[in-house]
Please model this.
Amino acid sequence: MPLRQKLIEATFEVFDLIGGMEVRPGPMPPEGEVLSFSFSVTGMVGLVGSRKGMLAVHASEGLAMALTGNFLGLEVKEVNEDVKDAIAELTNILAGCAKSALVGAGEELRLSLPSTLSGKEYSLSPSPGAERLLVPFNTQAGWLLVELQMERATP
Amino acid sequence: MSRTILIIDDSSTMRKIVSRSLRQAGIEAETLLEAGNGIEALEALAANKVDLILSDINMPEMDGLEFLRRKAADPAMAKIPVVMITTEAGTELVVEAKKLGAAGSIKKPFSPEQIEEIVSPLL
Model:
């Protein structure tokens, strides 16, 4: 199964089993190297080993707060440490899915611990020479974008 | 019956999700302890009588594999069953955890039914 499809199924599984909300494929972001975000939360997990890479989950603040509320069973009204922790854990789960797929294809990889960033406006550029896979989603509470960057395999 | 369950995960969100899933699976614990890494878990085990441990693998300070090694080396806690709850099901880390004595593993995300299937026989 292609990696894109595995990430789609893993995202559906998280939202179904513990997220408590429906998620569906969303529109691709505008073409361009730099991804720009407004009022968003981003989680990142590094992949290191035979190739270097990174899996990121970008979410609108609305979705990040709603998802955290469903995870914890409480109402969340601001992007606080709980929200960052929830997005970090979502990123961790999807990075585990990516790692399993890539290890199955012969790579040797380890996952770093997740980190997060959030704010009114920020932009992220891809690592030079990295292959980038973008998988967008939509929910009633807002949008989600899963991004996988991997160093190109040496021939 | 009075039971004490220890949940080890560096994510406070995941500790709460595991705790809720245990309740939804009908697994009641008299006392639910939480630890953010292996070091905190060893401290909790030294201070409490624990019946079951649910542990993440990838954690700061002391990961789940090192925790299993230290626990196995202490006769007072060696026999407490540990179930790994991890994003890395099926990888070499889970194989290593089983070699170090883990009684089972559950892949994140999980349903209460999956928790019940693995955890109930150990209590």
